[in-house]
Amino acid sequence: MKTAVLASETDFDGWRVAARALRLAGVEPVAARFVVAGADGQGGLFDIPYSAHPRESGDERNRDEFTVPAAFVDLARDVILHRSADRFDLMYRLLWRLRDEPDLTKVVSDRDVADAMERARNVSRSSHKMKAFVRFRQTHDAHGEAWVAWFEPAHRVVERTAPFFQRRFTTMRWSILTPDGSAHWDTETLSFGPPATRDMAPAEDEIEAFWKTYYASTFNPARLKLKTMQGEMPKSYWKNLPEAALIPGLTAASQGRTEAMVATPAPAPNARFMRAVARDLHAARPDAEVVPADLAEVERGVQACRRCPLYRDATQGVCGEGPKAARLMIVGEQPGDQEDLAGRPFVGPAGQVLDEALEEAGVDRVDVYVTNAVKHFKHEPRGKRRLHRTPDAGEVTACRWWLDAERRLVQPKLVLALGATAGLALLGRKPAVIRERGQALTLDDGSVGMLTVHPAYLLRLPDRAAQSEARRAFVEDLSAARHLIG
Ligand code: URA
What we know:
Radius of gyration: 27 Å
CATH superfamily of the largest domain: Uracil-DNA glycosylase-like domain
Number of strands: 15
Number of helices: 19
Strand order of the largest sheet: 4-5-6-7-8
Structural class: alpha/beta
Bound molecules: uracil
Largest sheet: 5 strands, mixed
CATH architecture of the largest domain: 3-Layer(aba) Sandwich
CATH class of the largest domain: Alpha Beta
Number of domains: 4
């Protein structure tokens, strides 16, 4: 067994150097062990045949240099922040396999890859919760006003998340204390210190009262959805949130009097702090209703979107692409397996059918803004495959926020819906596609829409004759769309 000692639980650089040395020395995953140094923090490599010149040792095979995809490095950086004890081993196992399976990180059905991606998602969620639920309390020290928060993140995300607070609260001195370590900002330098305990953070102040009033005044009993609320604000975080003390009371009071909004005006204990908090809330709540000002904001919003649960199992959100002033917008259903991996719409088999039909209809895809009604891939695992599942009306409605934003920003002359789901998103009702196809329809904002079949429908038809007839009709609809945009 070869052992590498890492300087800390989050020592990604140490792991990277050690893993590389082990890999070059041909140490198989079962024979490699990563341990974290004791409190003295003395890390470093020992017990492994590490050499600054790995080419000089080992047999021919082990001397090969190898590179890993940037996506793997990013994945490892996240996974190593996971609290699981075997995370270093998992990533070393993946690194080991990468040389013979260079595309391994794209095989999301692989057990190790899926496991790593799930852990990375947990880490990312934990960082998000930290952004949303850290509550600073005001203190004073020899240098004046300072803000201190106590927080217990699910994973070791303090260092990763601290730059967010640096950007949000640039002009204020603050510290975030956690059981893993602490982060400090003195308005010039971000630094990290040792683990803390809850009693090191102040317990009560006027900001506490502000949070309680703020929460009470924004609490809308008519919208009470306990499950969603607990999903967004998990109970494990409640004990550190001043406003959480109000939740049981507000919840009980909401029953039977949904119109009676709690309307206490929120006091402003510190204007500067409150401005920063307002910005913070906007940035931290991914579903905040901040209307995107451009397509780049749509992209960022989609990646952070939690409007429905589909983001959980998708690799990423897939936004539309194409000219920002395209005359034609084509709306599909949702990204498929390949689109989910590539992060681009219509690049898989249905995309190929669409591309060919567009070409035949005389429409250049580069002039078209191509997007989907739903931005995350809905699927279920079946063996090594991920099988498409049709998004439901709730998911379509939730995602309409992004489609509407794309329509408002691109302002196409014509929006062409491919299939029933896209039709539902645009018309607000499930259309009879075959009956209504090819005609100009007026959409809710007065713009012009049209329906046609989804290209995947052509792929599903049983025989060649039916396929070529359906294909001809599809090209005809695309040609009609071309004529409508002039
Ligand atoms: N099907 C769709 O509806 N959209 C895509 O992006 C790919 C397949």
